[in-house]
Amino acid sequence: MSAESTEEVIAPVTEDQEETQSKTASRLEEEGDIAADYLEELLDIADIDGDIDIEVRNGRTYISIGADEESAALDSLVGRDGEVLEALQELARLSVLSATESRSRLVLDINGYRKERAGVLQKIAEDAAAKVKADGGTVALEPMSAYERKIVHDAVADLGYVSESEGEGAGRHIVVSAD
To answer: Mean of the pLDDT values across residues 120-141?
Structure first.
């Protein structure tokens, strides 16, 4: 294909690829169902009202718990800095592991906390990139979860900078640099 050509060559999807994609989607839907059942039981035990939505996208299962009205009880399931949310996500993943003998990478969100937090993380990445641009050198960010680090790494890369995770355990954090 010449550099001037605007045609895009698309390889045909084989039956094996379709079957693999179908099995993967089916497995992810099963993960969502198992985790949603677990979380629904937990909400019932705690006598907390919430609607559970399951979505499969980008090779992951996303589970959202929300309510039509403001719910202090659901907010308590997020906890300070999302700590309770992270714990509930791990419990949901363990319920999937127990039922399927397969690890899950599902993501749990409660009352839109993760979406709101993604906006904050984007701003943190932008501020760090601006500081690197102004001062040169590197900028070390506060420790954050693996999921949050992934969001920041992606945002920093989109801004044309480099980021690297350093440290271990609860102290693992990102360092942003120009190269």
So the answer is: 95
